[in-house]
């Protein structure tokens, strides 16, 4: 049954429900109740067909919940239903929160985003780039210019995830892939080692997705004098009452952590491997709890992340607490790439993709929409024009062949009547 009808979210003692959004009927918010039922049916069908284990979907309009529903299983093998306050590994959705932290320091006069990174992290004063040569190998050359903080925010620093031209050197250094929870090395030390490795492209020439936001996390530590978890907690999480957002899970919340599943060609989904490899269920409970990955480290709930996004949609403020100025939010959510190739119809802001041509992208939305996603197949977007926030959390890695994101977007917009 649609939870927007009664939205029992106010029931129970769950900390997530304590700060849940006020609900409105779909009609009051310009949505069709009957058409939103299609979204509910779709989500439940994907779980029943074992195309996805389960998840939580939240749609806000004008800061009020139009749709807030959990579906499927938190743990399929245990036959444990997915609660609305389930905690998910959100991976790269961490990037937006760290990017906001950087903009907060700019507002405090402690940095400028056009500053060279080396002003705060000296090891980036002279970086190298690996360039393929005619012999099938590569040469290592000096970067044409220094990397700026803005390069890191918009992923034009030329720094990948260690799988580029000089992958052999990155592998030898033990720095490949986005996963950090199993590391017993502080992020500041990892970033020092990253700076010495050959990058994938010269700064400012290409969009290259990788460790940029992890470097921003180290930069926040260096400038603030605080560990990244403490900085983000004091500056963003506590003020926004995001009480269920953590780098590593408190022991008392283990039974709310959603299980990770993997898609397979033949058998639907299977439970991902337990810790011991690299990602799997991860080291978020029993790991070393030492590496705070600004690029992919957070766990969160749909409600918590919805509060963060609603703050941005409100121009940097939520419930009387101001995190950023409206102008800083505006700067973060416009296209900065310009002549650099990215995705069809989309540009890149400072921590978000930005919709700049609806027709070129070819999916529903409005100019100025911004968002991103995470490796565990979570996604979100914010639409200033349509005044909506969408959060979709699930745990599917890899999500090979999944079309749930496209269906989610379509089902939401086909239900929007005004």
Helix content: 25-40%
Structural class: alpha+beta
Main sheet strand line-up: 3-2-1-16-15-14-13-12
β content, as a range? 15-25%
Number of strands: 16
Give average pLDDT, whole number.
94
Pick out the low-confidence regions.
Answer: 1-18
Shape assignment: globular
Note the gap between the termini.
Answer: 24 Å
Largest sheet: 8 strands, antiparallel
- Cα radius of gyration in angstroms: 21 Å
Order of helices and strands: HHHEEEEHEEHHHHHEEEHEEHEEHEEEH
Number of helices: 13
Pick out its properties:
single chain; 418 residues; alpha+beta; eight-stranded antiparallel beta sheet; two-stranded antiparallel sheet; 13 helices; 17% strand; globular; disordered N terminus
Structure commentary:
There is one protein chain. The protein has 418 residues and is of the alpha+beta class. The chain has 13 helices and 16 strands. The strands form 5 sheets. Strands 3-2-1-16-15-14-13-12 form an 8-stranded antiparallel sheet, sandwiched between helices. Strand 7 (261-264) and strand 8 (268-271) form a beta hairpin. Helix 4 (94-107) packs across helix 8 (212-224) and helix 4 packs across helix 9 (228-237). The longest helix has 16 residues, at 33-48. The chain is globular and about 60 Å long. The two termini are 24 Å apart.
């Amino acid at each position: 049954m649609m939870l927007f009808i009664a939205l029992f979210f106010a029931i129970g003692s769950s900390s997530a429900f304590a700060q849940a959004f006020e609900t409105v009927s779909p009609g009051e918010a310009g949505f069709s109740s009957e058409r939103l039922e299609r979204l509910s049916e779709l989500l439940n069908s994907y779980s029943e067909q074992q195309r996805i284990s389960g998840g939580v979907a939240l749609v806000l309009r004008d800061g009020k919940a139009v749709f807030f529903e959990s579906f499927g299983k938190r743990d399929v093998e245990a036959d444990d239903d997915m609660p609305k306050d389930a905690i998910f590994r959100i991976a790269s959705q961490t990037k937006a929160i760290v990017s906001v932290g950087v903009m907060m320091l700019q507002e405090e006069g402690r940095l400028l985003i056009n500053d060279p990174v080396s002003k705060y992290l000296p090891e980036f004063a002279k970086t190298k780039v690996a360039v393929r040569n005619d012999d099938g190998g590569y040469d290592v050359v000096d970067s044409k210019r220094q990397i700026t903080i803005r390069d890191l925010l918009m992923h034009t620093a030329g720094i990948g995830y260690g799988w580029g031209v000089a992958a052999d050197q990155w592998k030898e250094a033990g720095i490949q892939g986005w996963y950090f929870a199993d590391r017993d090395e502080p992020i500041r030390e990892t970033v020092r080692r990253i700076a010495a490795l050959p990058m994938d492209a010269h700064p400012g020439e290409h969009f290259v997705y990788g460790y940029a936001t992890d470097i921003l996390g180290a930069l926040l530590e260096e400038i603030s004098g605080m560990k990244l978890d403490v900085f983000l907690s004091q500056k963003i999480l506590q003020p926004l009452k995001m009480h269920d957002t953590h780098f590593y899970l408190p022991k008392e919340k283990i039974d709310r952590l959603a299980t990770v599943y993997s898609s397979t060609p033949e058998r639907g989904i299977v439970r991902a491997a337990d810790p011991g490899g690299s990602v799997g269920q991860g080291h978020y409970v029993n790991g070393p709890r030492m590496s705070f990955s600004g690029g992919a480290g957070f766990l969160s709930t749909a409600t918590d992340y919805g509060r963060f996004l609603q703050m941005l949609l409100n121009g940097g403020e939520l419930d009387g607490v101001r995190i950023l100025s409206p102008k800083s939010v505006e700067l973060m959510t416009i296209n900065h790439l310009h002549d650099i190739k990215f995705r069809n119809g989309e540009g890149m802001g400072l921590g978000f993709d930005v919709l700049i041509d609806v027709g070129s992208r070819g999916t529903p939305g409005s100019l100025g929409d911004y968002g991103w996603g995470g490796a565990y197949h979570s996604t979100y977007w914010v639409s200033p024009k349509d005044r909506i926030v969408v959060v979709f959390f699930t745990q599917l890695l890899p999500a090979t062949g999944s079309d749930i994101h496209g269906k989610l977007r379509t089902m939401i917009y086909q239900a929007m009547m005004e």
